[in-house]
Design goal:
Blueprint (H helix, E strand, L loop, with lengths): L4 E4 L3 H12 L4 E4 L3 H11 L5 E3 L3 H6 L6 E4 L5 H13 L5 E4 L5 H13 L3 E8 L1 H7 L2 E5 L2 H14 L2 E2 L2 E2 L9 H29 L5 H11 L7 H11 L22 H12 L4 H14 L1 H7 L14 H34 L5 H7 L10 H11 L10 H24 L4 H14 L5 H12 L3 E3 L2 E7 L7 E3 L1
Parallel strand pairs: 1-2, 1-4, 2-3, 4-5, 5-6
Antiparallel strand pairs: 6-7, 8-9, 10-11, 11-12
Helix pairs in contact: 1-6, 5-8, 8-11, 8-12, 8-14, 9-10, 11-12, 12-18, 14-17, 14-18, 15-16
Bound molecules: NADPH dihydro-nicotinamide-adenine-dinucleotide phosphate.
Length: 475
């Protein structure tokens, strides 16, 4: 039989996606640059469903029903371009290429545009959930021509995670929007993990809990508003003992966090768009600091000062940390959704933030109970000026604010780094401030560079003649 869908690139992600398609009753064409991976897939999992294997790209494309639909799951960057080029060479007008890799969204915009000129439809699909998700139901964020979604959509929705019967997959918008949204998703994942890390650090270093006790706290937190995949697996990782030493595994892992780049991309894009995603940026920088092992070694022994403020009551302070974590998380998501809105405006994507919250509820790494609240917030008011200002989140953050301040000030007095908590709180205070020192910044800019300023009591731009008589002129 002709295959309904093809997958090329059969490393861990591609194999698992191919198996997922097969398990859902689709006939799946499979291909990999080196045939050995194709053979391995068939040997180990051929019984998952109906696979049609090909050694050459020509046979692979010929084994598909028209319009042909091929998912590429290869290394992002040049390999993806190489594979697109091979496919495009043997495909026909109206065929569809779906890039499921972690492409940079600007690459996706470029690829979509050049393939459109060749009569092919290109879908840049962000896929989250890691290898487990790829096999059992990921969250899928496909962007590309609406026409492509008519035939690709049902296939992708069939293999995606589902929450309350709703697939965690929807057409995001044109060209690079799917990969853009996946990028911000990953950025939010960085922020989430950083905040979890800070909470863990405080429970250990401010309250003296051991990893087992901290695991218990996270297990409890997972029963409430913080319920999420990341909080759940935090408890599991913390409770795990190293087989070799018998110590908590977390104590034998080198404390230098690596990154593959999507967090950095998110921050770079946010800088270009002028959106303060401080939560994500702090998370990216915190990983960089952790990785600066030479500098950290050389800095051991830097004075911590003489102040101290050991929390008096373990239970109260644990609850303070929970509140600070939740409030900081609301800020990080609010900022991420601001970036999505800014990207949408910049590229004319007409993105619907409520849809994203819906498809992130399952399958992906940031899946959480919390996302239902985000969906509700945008359902209620699609024009929300900031997620943080939706009634539910506003209440949550306002109720947390005293705890949040106690946590940040205690951490500061104890010398425990909390860049995520502290910058989220400063962002909150900046957002709600009646007046910001930006007025002074404008005055200084006008002084040294005649950059002009606006007045609170008149329209137009003004300049003070600083080096003359200091009278004001309209610019
Ligand atoms: P890798 O990123 O390790 O890529 C390996 C695959 O790419 C192999 O099939 C390899 O073929 C192929 N490949 C590399 N270079 C070329 C080339 N020039 N031409 C043709 N094929 C090439 O695989 P993963 O499964 O980890 O990830 C696949 C994609 O999915 C990546 O873009 C990744 O960022 C993304 N992704 C990964 C997630 C994860 O959790 N791992 C989660 C979500 C997305 P060969 O066997 O011949 O070497």
């Amino acid at each position: 039989p002709l295959a309904q869908i093809g997958v090329t690139g059969l490393a861990v992600m591609g194999s698992n996606l191919a198996r997922n398609f097969a398990r859902h009753g689709h006939v799946v064409a499979v291909h990999n640059r080196s045939y050995s991976k194709t053979q391995t897939l068939l040997d180990a999992h051929g019984s998952d469903g109906t696979f049609v294997a090909s050694e050459s790209i020509e046979d692979f494309v010929a084994s598909l029903e028209k319009p042909r639909k091929v998912v590429i799951m290869v290394k992002a960057g040049d390999p993806t371009d190489a594979v697109i080029e091979e496919l495009a060479g043997v495909m026909d007008e109206g065929d569809i290429i779906i890039d499921g890799g972690n492409a940079l969204y600007t690459d996706t915009i470029r690829r979509e545009s050049s393939l459109k000129d060749r009569g092919l439809l290109f879908v840049g699909a962000g896929i989250s959930g890691g290898e487990e998700g790829a096999l059992n139901g990921p969250s899928i964020m496909p962007g590309g021509p609406a026409k492509s979604y008519e035939s690709v959509g049902p296939l992708l929705e069939s293999i995606s995670a589902h929450v309350d019967g709703t697939p965690c997959c929807t057409h995001i918008g044109p060209d690079g929007s799917g990969h853009f949204v996946k990028m911000v998703h990953n950025g939010i994942e960085y922020a989430d993990m950083q905040l979890i890390g800070e909470a863990y650090n405080l429970l250990r270093d401010a309250l003296g809990m051991d990893p087992d006790a901290v695991a218990d706290v996270f297990r409890q937190w997972n029963e409430g508003d913080l319920e999420s995949y990341l909080v759940e697996i935090t408890a599991q990782v913390l409770a795990h003992k190293d087989a070799k030493t018998g110590k908590p595994l977390v104590d034998v892992i080198v404390d230098a966090a690596e990154q593959k780049g999507t967090g950095r991309w998110t921050v770079k894009s946010a800088l270009d768009l002028g959106v303060p995603v401080t939560g994500i940026a702090e998370a990216v920088f915190a990983r960089a600091l952790s990785g600066a092992r030479g500098q950290r070694e050389a800095s051991k022994g830097l004075a911590s000062g003489t102040l101290s403020a050991k929390p008096e009551d373990i239970e109260t302070f644990t609850e303070d940390i929970r509140s600070a974590l939740y409030a900081s998380k609301v800020v990080a998501y609010s900022q991420g959704f601001d970036q999505i809105a800014a990207g949408s405006a910049e590229y004319d994507w007409n993105l619907h933030p409520g849809d994203l919250a819906t498809i992130w509820r399952g399958g992906c790494i940031i899946r959480a109970r919390f996302l239902n609240r985000i969906k509700d917030a945008y359902d209620e008011n699609p024009e929300l000026p900031a997620l943080l200002l939706a009634p539910y989140f506003r209440d949550a953050v306002e109720n947390a604010v005293d705890s949040w301040r106690r946590v940040v000030s205690t951490a500061t007095l104890l010398g425990i780094p909390v860049p995520g908590f502290a910058s989220a709180l400063s962002y909150y205070d900046g957002l709600r401030a009646e007046r910001l020192p930006a007025a002074l910044t404008q005055g200084l800019r006008d002084f040294f560079g005649a950059h002009t300023y606006e007045r609170i009591d008149a329209d137009g731009k003004f300049h003070t003649l600083w080096s003359e008589d200091r009278s004001e002129i309209e610019a």
